[in-house]
C-alpha cells in the first residue's frame, strides 16, 4: 500500500472533504503521512472560487516538479473544485498531474490510485452526483487540535449567484441524514472534542425528509446542541434570504450554540444585489440584522463583500460603505471581484471596473472595517467571557489563546490553563483583531 500526502486549499468545506478522503484511503490500507518526502502520492484539494486561488495551485504544481525529479515514482492528483472545473484539461496544461477527481467521486480514489500506478495511465473522475453526501464515512481528523472539528451537513448549492462557480463545481444541493450528523457530533464529544462547526454552502436551507417527517436546520441545531451543554456548536455559512426567526430562537435558547453569525452581504446596493442574483435587497438584509440583535444582543456578525462587481458605480460603492457603518461587523472577508468562467457574470456581464479602481474601493472597505472592528473590540474591555482554550499564542509561549462564544480571539497569560479547558477571562485591552485579557475565577 502507498503513502498519501494531502494538501488542502480554500474553504472549510475543502478541509472537511480532505478528512473524508483520508478516511476512504486508510480503509483501503493506505497511510496518510505528514512528511511530503515520504509520499508516493500527493493529493492537492483545490479551490476555484477566485482566479488567484487557481494560480496558487498552478504555482504549487511547478514547485512540486523538483520533488518529482528526486522521487521518480511520485504521482500528483488534483481534487476538489478546480478538478471539477477544468477536468481532463488540467492534465494537459499541467503535465505532472496524473489524475483529477471531483468532489463527488472520492469513493473512486482507491481504484484510481491503483490504475495510475499499475497501468501508467492518467485518470479523470469528475461526474457530479445528486445523492452523494458521504454520510457513512467517519472522517479522519487531519492536523486536529483535538478540540474543534468540522461536520459537513450538506453538499452543493443551487443559489446560482452571478459571480460564483460553486454550483458548477459542487453540484446540486442535498442534505445529509440528521441521525448521522448527530451521531458524528456525539462521537466527537465522546472523544474529547469541545466544539463542532456544522458546514454547508447555505446551512439555512438544510432539509432532510424521511418517513414523512422533515428535519430543518433549526431542529438539527437543537439536536446537536442537546448532546451536551459542554459541546459548543457553530455553523457556516448562512444565506440572508433563508435566515429565519426560528433559527434565531433556537440559538438564543441554547447557551452552547455560539452567538456568532456569518451573513454575507456582498453589496449595499439593491441594483448590485439583483445583478448578483442574491435574492434579497438591502432592506431585507437589515431586517435580518435587526432580528439577530433582537434575539441575541451580544451576537457577533461577520460578512463577505465584493468590491468592483460588474458596472458598480461610485455611488453604489458608497452604499456598501454605508451598510458597513449601519451593521458594524465584527469581521469581514473582503475581496475584489474576480470573473470566473462558466458563471452567469462570465456569460452575460462585462468586467468593466478597472483593476486600480477595484483596489481603491477594496482598500476603502478594509480601512473602514478596521476602524469598526477596533471600536467594537474596545467596547469589550472590562467584560468577562467564557473562553475555550485552543493553544499557544503565536507571539509568546507564555500566553495562550482561545475564543469566546462570539468567535473573538482572546489572548491571556498561560498560568495553569490547558487547551480544551473552559475558563473565564476578563478583557483588559484589544487590537482590531484580538482581545487581550486576564484569567479570573
Question: What descriptors fit this protein?
Answer:
21 strands, 24% strand, 441 residues, six-stranded parallel sheet, alpha/beta, 14 helices
Structure description:
This protein has 441 residues and is α/β, with parallel strands linked by helices. It has 14 helices and 21 strands. The chain has helices at 12-27, 51-70, 81-86, 89-93, 109-119, 166-170, 178-190, 217-225, 245-253, 270-275, 282-295, 314-327, 344-348, 355-378; strands at 3-8, 31-32, 41-46, 75-80, 97-101, 123-125, 148-152, 154-155, 174-175, 195-199, 207-210, 213-216, 232-236, 260-262, 300-307, 331-336, 384-392, 399-403, 409-413, 422-430, 435-440. A six-stranded parallel beta sheet has the order 2-1-3-4-5-6, with helices on both faces.
Strand order of the largest sheet: 2-1-3-4-5-6
**Largest pleated sheet:** 6 strands, parallel
Distance between the termini: 52 Å
* Rg, Å, rounded: 22 Å
Beta-strand content: 15-25%
Fraction of residues in helices? 25-40%
Mean pLDDT across every amino acid position: 96
Task: Give me the secondary-structure category.
Answer: alpha/beta
Write down the overall geometry.
globular
How many helical elements?
14
Q: Could you provide a short overview of the structure?
A:
With 441 residues, the chain is an alpha/beta fold. It has helices spanning 12-27, 51-70, 81-86, 89-93, 109-119, 166-170, 178-190, 217-225, 245-253, 270-275, 282-295, 314-327, 344-348, 355-378; strands spanning 3-8, 31-32, 41-46, 75-80, 97-101, 123-125, 148-152, 154-155, 174-175, 195-199, 207-210, 213-216, 232-236, 260-262, 300-307, 331-336, 384-392, 399-403, 409-413, 422-430, 435-440.
Amino acid at each position: 500500500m502507498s503513502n498519501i500526502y494531502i494538501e488542502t486549499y480554500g474553504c472549510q468545506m475543502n478541509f472537511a472533504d480532505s478528512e473524508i478522503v483520508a478516511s476512504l484511503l486508510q480503509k483501503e490500507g493506505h497511510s496518510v503521512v505528514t512528511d511530503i518526502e515520504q509520499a508516493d502520492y500527493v493529493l492537492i484539494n483545490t479551490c476555484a472560487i477566485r482566479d488567484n486561488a487557481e494560480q496558487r495551485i498552478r504555482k504549487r504544481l511547478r514547485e512540486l516538479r523538483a520533488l518529482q525529479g528526486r522521487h521518480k515514482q511520485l504521482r500528483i492528483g488534483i481534487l476538489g473544485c478546480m478538478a471539477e472545473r477544468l477536468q481532463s484539461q488540467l492534465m494537459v496544461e499541467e503535465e505532472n498531474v496524473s489524475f483529477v477527481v471531483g468532489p463527488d467521486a472520492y469513493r473512486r480514489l482507491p481504484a484510481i490510485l491503483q490504475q495510475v500506478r499499475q497501468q501508467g495511465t492518467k485518470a479523470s473522475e469528475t461526474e457530479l452526483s445528486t445523492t452523494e453526501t458521504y454520510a457513512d464515512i467517519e472522517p479522519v481528523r487531519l492536523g486536529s487540535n483535538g478540540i474543534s472539528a468540522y461536520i459537513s451537513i450538506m453538499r452543493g448549492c443551487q443559489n446560482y449567484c452571478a459571480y460564483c462557480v460553486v454550483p458548477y463545481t459542487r453540484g446540486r444541493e442535498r442534505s445529509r441524514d440528521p441521525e448521522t450528523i448527530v451521531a458524528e457530533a456525539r462521537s466527537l464529544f465522546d472523544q474529547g472534542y469541545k466544539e463542532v462547526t456544522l458546514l454547508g454552502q447555505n446551512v439555512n436551507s438544510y432539509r432532510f425528509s424521511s418517513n414523512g417527517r422533515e428535519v430543518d436546520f433549526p431542529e438539527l441545531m437543537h439536536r446537536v446542541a442537546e448532546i451536551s451543554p459542554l459541546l459548543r456548536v457553530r455553523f457556516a455559512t448562512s444565506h440572508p434570504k433563508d435566515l429565519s426567526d426560528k433559527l434565531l430562537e433556537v440559538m438564543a435558547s441554547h447557551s452552547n450554540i455560539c452567538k456568532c453569525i456569518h451573513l454575507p452581504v456582498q453589496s449595499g446596493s439593491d441594483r448590485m444585489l439583483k445583478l448578483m442574483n442574491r435574492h434579497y435587497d438591502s432592506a431585507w438584509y437589515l431586517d435580518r440584522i435587526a432580528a439577530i440583535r433582537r434575539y441575541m444582543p451580544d451576537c457577533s456578525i461577520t460578512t463577505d463583500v465584493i468590491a468592483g462587481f460588474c458596472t458598480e458605480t461610485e455611488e453604489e460603492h458608497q452604499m456598501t460603505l454605508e451598510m458597513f457603518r449601519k451593521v458594524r461587523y465584527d469581521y469581514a472577508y473582503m475581496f475584489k471581484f474576480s470573473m470566473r468562467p462558466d458563471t452567469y457574470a462570465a456569460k452575460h456581464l462585462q468586467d468593466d471596473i478597472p483593476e486600480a479602481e477595484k483596489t481603491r474601493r477594496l482598500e476603502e472597505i478594509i480601512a473602514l472595517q478596521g476602524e469598526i472592528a477596533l471600536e467594537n473590540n474596545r467596547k469589550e474591555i472590562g467584560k468577562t467571557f467564557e473562553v475555550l482554550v485552543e493553544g499557544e499564542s503565536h507571539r509568546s509561549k507564555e500566553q495562550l489563546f482561545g475564543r469566546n462564544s462570539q468567535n473573538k480571539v482572546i489572548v491571556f497569560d498561560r498560568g495553569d490553563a490547558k487547551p480544551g479547558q473552559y475558563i473565564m477571562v476578563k478583557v483588559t485591552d484589544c487590537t482590531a483583531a484580538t482581545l487581550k485579557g486576564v484569567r479570573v475565577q
